[in-house]
Amino acid sequence: MPFTIAIDGPAASGKGTIARALAARFGFHHLDTGLLYRATGAKGGDPIAAARSLTPEDMARDDLRSAEAGQAASKVAAIPEVRAALVAFQRDFARREPGAVLDGRDIGTVICPDAQLKLFVTASDQVRAARRAAELGADPAEMLAQLRERDARDSQREAAPLKPAADAILLDTSDLAIDKAVAVAVDLVLSARKST
Ligand code: DC
């Protein structure tokens, strides 16, 4: 049976970096599910039709990492039919052998409620804004305002809001260097693998 790791958390919490590092360390597949919503938003037109017709080319666009694409993604992600259109792809991905790491907002709660390990990665909004500003070469104050707007929309929406699963392990990276955060996550995977 494949081993599935669900990693959720707000933007710039470090979840993507941790997910990539775990996938590399354990030889697992990795899916950044935010890219599905970013590609849907970037495609334009009717978001439901866009989500239903996503192609690998849509996912490979080079403008998906921008702050604008993040805002557009957060808006289309609140539409239940958009989310429904993307569920099967994510669940199939989660079943890939020998294992898969998926990161997003609703992986532990909706997409993979039976994942063998669930992490909820957080950091203070100040720290997250500073990280995102450095990454995108943007103004930290502007990033903070955008992150707060996105967090509010992602956690207050009706459909699959951002929240930790009841059995998720919380990992706060505000004061942790990324290699420390990865080391903690690796230990959690090793113990979860022993007990499954
Ligand atoms: O992780 P990210 O910043 O690339 O995500 C962009 C937006 O997509 C995020 O603001 C909300 C949405 N999203 C979601 O609703 N569910 C997911 N599993 C992943 C992302």
Provide an overview of this structure:
- The protein has one domain (3-189): P-loop containing nucleotide triphosphate hydrolases (Rossmann fold), CATH 3.40.50.300.
- The mean pLDDT is 96.
- It has 196 residues and is α/β, with parallel strands linked by helices.
- The chain has 10 helices and 5 strands.
- Helix 1 (15-26) packs across helix 10.
- The longest helix is centred in the last third of the chain and has 17 residues, at 140-156.
- The chain is 55% helix and 13% strand.
- It binds 2'-deoxycytidine-5'-monophosphate.
- 2'-deoxycytidine-5'-monophosphate binds at residues 11, 33-34, 37-38, 70, 73-74, 77, 104-107, 150, 154.
List the helices and strands and how they pair.
Blueprint: E1 3-8, H1 15-26, E2 29-32, H2 34-43, H3 47-52, H4 56-59, H5 67-76, H6 80-94, E3 99-104, H7 107-111, E4 117-122, H8 125-136, H9 140-156, E5 169-172, H10 178-194
Parallel strand pairs: 1-3, 1-4, 2-3, 4-5
Helix pairs in contact: 1-10, 2-5, 5-9, 8-9
The structure holds 2'-deoxycytidine-5'-monophosphate (DC).
